[in-house]
Amino acid sequence: MPNWELKGCCKDDQVAFLVTVGVYMLAILALWRTFVITPFKLITVFLHEASHAIACKLTCGQVEGMQVHANEGGVTQTRGGVYWIILPAGYLGSSFWGMVFILASTNLLTARIAAGCFGVALLIVLFVAKNWTLRGLCIGFIIFLAVIWILQEMTKVRILRYVILFMGVMNSLFSVYDIYDDLISRKINSSDAEKFAEVCPCPCNGAAWGVIWGMISFIFLGAAMYLGLVILS
After folding, report:
1. What's the whole-number mean pLDDT along residues 15-40?
2. Biggest CA pair distance of the chain
3. Among residues 3, 93, 172, 233, which is most buried (max CB within 10 A)?
4. Between helices 83-104 and 108-126, what is the axis angle to 10°?
5. How far apart (Å, rounded) are the C-alpha atoms in residues 55 and 87?
6. Is the pTM here over 0.85, yes or no?
7. 131: burial class by Cβ within 10 Å (0-12, 13-18, 19+)?
8. Whole-angstrom Cα distance, residue 19 to residue 204?
């Protein structure tokens, strides 16, 4: 039975999980403006755009192309679909995938599944990418994941779970930062939140939706931490 009350917390695995997440957060913040973190920021942008694309396909639309730019921007060209579902899917989707990666890291089997599915997703997007930054990102991370997988399976350097956890923490932090930077601290008329405010009948502007989406992103992060502890208990 799942230990929903977290009785007896925290055991060695749970302490290691919390400490690792904390160390990752500090390292990411310390290296935020450096090139070391840039590829992982671009992966978060990739997941943001991929979430738009998934929402489009799930609402019977057509994805005409995706781009990720070196300046940490991106765009997904869609036709059809349900606009008010597609628009928030980017920011909330990257937060959701951050939670999924964090939870997947708690077990080697699920970490393998996450790495394999992510590799397949990168391979699929490689063929619909509309610019070389996204193509290079897909190729680079396919190679990166393949190397990590080989190290995991054929050597004593077993770091797959830690890599998946890092990607989860990175996605969770960057999505919250992205929401604040793009939607709350300044007004960008072309932002997803401003467009959503135009199609949503609720009396909220883009900044208000940014706050709401930011709160949901924090909920995803909190849920990831709680459920991770439950799984490890």
Report:
1. 92
2. 57
3. 172
4. 140
5. 9
6. yes
7. middle
8. 39
